[in-house]
Write a structure and sequence with these properties.
The chain has 141 residues and is an alpha/beta fold. It has one domain: Lysozyme-like (3-Layer(aba) Sandwich). A hairpin with a 5-residue loop joins strand 2 and strand 3. The protein is globular.
């Protein structure tokens, strides 16, 4: 039996939870490698670790190292894609989840505050620009 067949349907997607590869968790929907390659590991429709969440692992130890800019840009690109598919999702860090083991994940040097500010403004603007372009393209001669 495959790992996917043992998992439950995820239900409504409410959160994207960010992890780094030094996290004790080991099952994610997406992995973003240090070279900015995005790997789709599990169907968005299946639950991995946290209910109603899509898990993203960024390869690296961000307790000690900063996130490479290309990897951070790949994360933003993936978050935009997910926001288009799941408009209600919010971005959070693994360390923010109540009841989980004490963790610094996705790392002390991960720019979570800046990413959340970007998600609250620029992510929404980028999503709206794409949606506006799609709608307007349907009415062009």
């Amino acid at each position: 039996m495959s790992r996917s067949s043992q998992k439950r349907p995820i239900g409504a997607k409410k959160f994207v939870i960010l992890h780094h590869s030094k996290c004790y968790r080991d099952s994610f929907h997406y992995r973003i490698c240090a070279d900015a390659e995005i790997e789709h590991l599990e169907s968005d429709d299946l639950s991995t670790q946290h209910p109603n969440s899509i898990g993203i692992e960024l390869v690296g130890d961000f307790d000690h190292d900063p996130v490479p800019s290309a990897q951070l840009q790949a994360l933003k690109d993936l978050l935009l894609e997910l926001k288009l598919r799941y408009p209600a999702i919010q971005v959070g860090a693994h360390r923010q989840i109540r009841g989980d083991r004490k963790t610094s994940c996705p790392g002390r040097r991960f720019p979570m505050r800046e990413l959340r500010e970007w998600a609250a403004t620029h992510l929404i603007d980028q999503r709206d620009d794409i949606l506006r372009e799609v709608i307007e393209s349907q009415y062009r001669p």
